[in-house]
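This week, study the protein below.
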Amino acid sequence: MYMKIKRLVIIPSVVAIPLLVPLIVMQFTNEVSWTLFDFIVAAFLLFIAAMAVGLIIRKVKDKTYRIIFSAVVFALFLLIWAEIAVGIFGTPFAGT
């Protein structure tokens, strides 16, 4: 029971803390201009990635495989984020 409650605190924190960076920077410069939709998409991507890593940590017993699978999730997250932000692959989802 304690681990479930702890997990329910850690995962939203993992999602919220990186979102504070653009929120704070937006107060000091016009170079960063996120809309509510940007924050929602970023929160969704971070939440899915955090949940996937949490599932990997709980279900995969071998430490090496945990690291490999978590790295794959992180790499996919970064690729999707980069595509949405600047369109490195040129899909219709590109933000440019």
Notes: Residues 2-22+34-86 form one domain.
